[in-house]
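Sharing a chain and its predicted structure for anyone who wants a worked example. Both blocks are below, sequence first, tokens second.
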Amino acid sequence: MITLFHGSPNKVVTPQFGLGKDKHDYGRGFYLTADIELAKEWAVCRPDESNGWVHEYELDTDGLTVLDFQDHDVLVWLAELMKHRDADDSKRYRVLSKKFIAKYGIDTSGADVIKGWRANASYFYIAKEFVRDNVDVDILEELLSLGGLGIQYCVKSQRAYDQLSEVPQGLMPVDYREFNDLYNTRDVAARQRMHDLINSDANTVTHVFSTLL
């Protein structure tokens, strides 16, 4: 049994199999995190200046297949994100991303739950630089660690939904100003650290996106 949190602008949330957007990191599903502070930030990471809510859940993982992207190479995780989200809008990217997914992607259809990094705004700064061949793969994992992306869980299957339950009295209000500022501060700082590393001597720009195909 693990305790997880879901940040949302909504006070009432009803997790339901089949809902969600295909364009999210791991496709349709219900997204949560074990980090309550990140859940608070994610509850108000929108520009509408409204307060949010954190919902507390318990997930019984007994008998569930949990696919953890931390057990795989970072390129496998990137390939999964490319299945659902566009890191660039160029024709070059559309062509090369298909080849990248074919080479590094894995079958996630049997997973009840997917665990892995959350691709926030700073991730797309890395992704754009990577697919434009401006980032060497040897510093890619370090770049992602600078982003403080956080680990999220995506509930995918009906069985996993059946084993997810909201904790009574686990609803917490989130102040927009406090936690949106924290979210933005984290993102700005991450981008600066990433920019510095990309422009350092550690980035040799030899083992890049297009050379991996």
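Comments welcome. The chain has a mean pLDDT of 88.
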